[in-house]
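hey can u check if this looks right to u? its 232 residues, i copy pasted from the old doc so theres a chance i mangled smth
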Amino acid sequence: MSDKYNITIANNGVEALEEIKKTEFSTIISDVMMPEMDGFELCKRIKANPETCQLPVLLLTALGDNVDLIKGLEFGADEYISKPFSLKHLELRLKKLIENNEKIKDYFSKNSLPPKDKKELGFSKRDLEFLENITEIIEKNLSNSNFGVEELSTEAGLSSSHFYRKLKQLTGQVPNAYLRNFRLQRAAELLDSNSGFNVAEVMYQIGIESNSYFSTSFKKLHGVSPSEYSKR
């Protein structure tokens, strides 16, 4: 599989956690039976950590017992393959995980709000909780022009670097772009709602003070200027 993917190998769960701290991965494939820390414990720690819980985990095991399957899923494993398995089978399951991640990132390249249909993109419960928490924090501070990424990461309980990494892994967007697009999407909703707000009032409500910045950014995202958008 190394001809298709960039692969990093760890000998056990302890080494894997160290590698995950240093490198941004798209998927974790782990054997269940490992020395020092088994795959169940590795999966549990990945999913319990707010900084890594969005990483898809695929567990491989020689244990065919349904109890072990349930145990893996309870710890948050996204996929579970019993041995023996064909390489083709593994590649297909891995491809599915990666494609779903790409689908999520494609969605967030156009949207900064979680989809109304929670099952639309196959988010895990933890991913949804993270995104909904971010949405709630931004909504609460939307009109505050001084509210930026540093304040957002602080309220989310993460360091700036960890917040950057988590949000980018999950949505494909860096925090500055995510926050900007969130505001611009809210602006479009306000202009489209027949609420009677003019452009200046909408700018105030979304926390943007510069008219030129608002107009340029809005047109880049929505294809037309705010005033043109409001007349549609």
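The chain has eleven helices and three strands.
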